[in-house]
Amino acid sequence: MPRPLTLSLRMLRTHRACDACVGEALLLHGDLQPLGVRTTQAWSIHVMNAAGYLAGFLLAIKLAIRVLTGYRNRVGRARHRK
Q1: Is the pLDDT of residue 5 over 80?
Q2: 59: in domain
């Protein structure tokens, strides 16, 4: 099994930026969903598709960083411990 890459500061910043952008893309998708569901106009279809593809692409980058480096976000785990 190949040794994981070392986590660099650039990868960590990329992971965090992708995390923030995924949140914004999902908020955009959620805010525009009532407009997009009721219509089949080209602009609404393109906006919904773009937001979905953007979120998927950014999640793929985050997953690649986690798989290649073994990075796990420790912030969320501290709150759930008893």
Answers
A1: no
A2: yes
